[in-house]
């Protein structure tokens, strides 16, 4: 782990509106807490890649629950082939950020939810 977890997931969520300061680290100002990890593979170029890992699966915000998911990036890397004779270009998913997202299920409460509809004309 490159950076420590920014907060304990079992603690109640903090009201960020009263505590956010511009000089605080981004990991402390974000809705979804995260920390950095090192993804190391000696048979890859680059051998070391710094990634983000969500510290909590969800957070409570204004009485609701927001899920935290990694935002992935497809990164080109060079990997040794099976016989370790030469490098082969590959694409590897790398977590860049931990982003807040709404739940992907519909609750059975009194609120009506609609699913997004695709545009009727091409963009």
TrEMBL record:
One of its GO terms (cellular component) is extracellular region. Residues 1-22 are annotated as: Disordered. InterPro entries: Cystine-knot_cytokine, IL-17_fam. Residues 1-18 have a biased composition (Basic and acidic residues). It is found in: Secreted. Keywords: Secreted, Signal. The keyword Signal applies. The keyword Secreted applies. One of its GO terms (molecular function) is cytokine activity. Belongs to the IL-17 family. This is AAI domain-containing protein. It comes from Caenorhabditis elegans.
């Amino acid at each position: 782990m490159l950076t420590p977890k920014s907060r304990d997931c079992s603690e109640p969520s903090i009201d960020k509106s009263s505590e956010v300061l511009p000089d605080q680290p981004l990991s402390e100002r974000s809705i979804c807490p995260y920390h950095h990890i090192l993804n190391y593979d000696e048979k890859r170029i680059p051998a070391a890649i710094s990634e983000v890992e969500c510290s909590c699966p969800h957070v409570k915000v204004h009485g609701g629950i927001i899920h935290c998911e990694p935002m992935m990036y497809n990164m080109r890397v060079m990997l040794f082939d099976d016989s370790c004779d030469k490098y082969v270009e590959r694409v590897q998913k790398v977590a860049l950020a931990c982003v807040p997202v709404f739940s992907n299920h519909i609750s059975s409460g009194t609120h009506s939810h609609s699913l997004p509809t695709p545009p009727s004309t091409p963009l």
